[in-house]
What we know:
The complex is a heterodimer of chains A (254) and B (414).
Chain A: E1 14-25, E2 28-40, E3 45-49, H1 56-63, E4 71-76, E5 79-80, H2 86-96, E6 97-100, H3 112-121, H4 131-145, H5 161-173, E7 179-183, H6 191-206, E8 210-215, H7 218-221, E9 226-231, E10 234-240
Parallel strand pairs in A: 3-8, 3-9, 6-7, 7-8
Antiparallel strand pairs in A: 1-2, 1-4, 4-5, 9-10
Chain B: H1 2-17, H2 19-57, E1 61-66, H3 88-94, E2 103-118, E3 121-130, H4 134-137, E4 142-145, H5 150-154, E5 159-162, H6 164-171, E6 180-183, E7 186-194, E8 199-200, E9 203-204, E10 208-212, H7 213-221, E11 228-233, H8 239-253, E12 264-268, H9 269-312, H10 314-322, H11 327-366, H12 377-403, H13 407-412
Helix pairs in contact in B: 1-11, 2-9, 2-11, 2-12, 9-11, 9-12, 11-12
Amino acid sequence: MTEKPDNTSTKPLIVCKDLGKTFYTGDIETHALRSASCTIDRGEFVSIMGPSGSGKSTFMHLLSFLEEPTKGSYHFDGRDISTFDGSTLAKLRNQEIGFIFQAFNLLSRLSVWDNVELPLLYDFYTKGLNRSKEHKQRIKDALESVGLSHRADYKAQYLSGGEKQRVAIARALVNNPKIIFADEPTGNLDSKAGLGVMQILQELSEKGHTIIMVTHEHSTAMHATRIIGLKDGILETDEPVENRLFAKDEQELK
Amino acid sequence: MYILLLSLKMTWQNFAAAKLRTFLTVLGIIIGIASVVIVLSVGTSAQNVLLDQVRQIGSNKIAILPGASADDGPPAIAFGIVSTTLVSSDVEQLRNKNSFPYIENVSGYVSTSKVVRYKKENAAYEIQGVEPEAVVVEDITLSSGRFLSDAENVSSRRVAVLGADVAKELFDQKSPVGEVIGIGKANYRVIGVAQRRGKSFAGNFDETVYIPLLTAQRNILGINYLSFARLSVSDESKIAETEDAIRSLLKSRHGIPQDEEGDFSVRNIAAAIEILSKITNVMKYFLVTVASIALVVGGIGIMNMMLITLNKRVREIGLRVALGARSRDIALQFLVESITISIMGGAVGSLIGYGITQVVGIVAVQNGINWHVSNEIDVYVLAFAIAGVIGIVFGIYPAIKATRVSPMEALRYE
Lengths: 254, 414
């Protein structure tokens, strides 16, 4: 199994204050996110909920350094990310973040192994003679942790939806990130496969991984420990989950 | 270095996944590079064949043509203008060793085309009326018999020396010497056969029948002027001096003031080689330019493919950015792809160009042309350089465009 995340630091992982993003298309301003403030600690499993257009995807893209905010502040692991340039943000994405997408976003022409290897290809930061050996071991471990070791040589396009998402999870784990972002991870899956994905995410959470999951389905959100609710671009609610759902006890994802 | 290897690996993965598309794109470059290589190599060889033929005539030769012409332009004869200003007595003066110490041999020429018959065989050949010195001026070697003599010329005897092909076509294996052939309405006795010399741009020596100058002038053409005169000099460094002396003599003989242009042209082979080099170079580089158009089209093919796949790969780019690729990694990936395509095209195109160049050489040699395959390494270095430049030039725009992809848009894209 993958190594456990380093949760020894006492600083909160994410601190954002009045975070906002406005897009400009010609003369038209789109306030994708008006204001969001929150603090997320290491080891939390947070659902970001809201109807489409509520700004939850934009919020996630800001938190994952894919977009830069137009207002507010964002400290990641104690560092103010507004001071970072593109290359440093790329390094953060590569070293400290794992992504899981609704549409899996695997490179279908490549093998499962090559897909999981992708983040490691952009690891320009690990030095040393054992680099490639270590990388190989990490890919093996990541595939094992999602139960797909036997599919390593398969082309991604020949996998089922559930298997694809498990490959994507392995890819998100392979660089041992501080935090995993999951954008509607069950959105393209049937309920059984979706449940399998939620089970893996909960297992990862139990092992100490920090997970932020965007979803518009309440039942999915209930698998987390905390739900942040967005509406019309504003972070409105932020509550711990009562009566949390556990995927391993369920028959299907409602 | 690692990033370059990484880009190459991703390029390989992409090509392996789209073999046909990659092949078709590479094909454009292959055709372009092969064309450039072939045009340059074959062009150089062809140029050398032409120049060798002129050199064969000998660089110590001077030709006098009737009619004025600019020094570097074609003589009047080339335009079909018949000029009657050059006569045998002009040539006679050139034999004066006191005035022209460096002239070795000189001969006046008339030429025409006539049907030559022997028994039932007959065909049209070039008939050249020459003086005995022509055997030296033209470097003719006889395979049997002898060349025309002074006595035969002066008394305008009907004798003939045959080119190798004339002899073979009319007489086959039989020896022609002593036989009688018909030229026009009269009969001529064959006194000699010239050795084979091969084709030349100046005419085919092997399909020429030599007869005495006076015989040709009086009995065949009914003229008293010369088509041209040729002479050889003993010292190549005296060519310019000798030419000036000839011009001076002919002007005074033709009653033309020395400071005016003559009614004749004096040419030497060195000058002809220079003119010919110029003309053939212009043609060669024109052809290279045409071939280069194929390369540009190939380059546009690369850019086209890169832009089309860019649209297909927006999601892939977004993903790579999300996983930690920097702008320069994305740009490099696309640039390496386009350069790889064009370098692959350059390599295969060079090989094909090389192959075709060799085949052309073999075919040319089999057809009796004195062809030397030009294998200048410069041509291949140039081809690779062009391929690389094309890969960069036509890859840069798609590469820049790829870095402008917004990961958020790309990943949202369904």
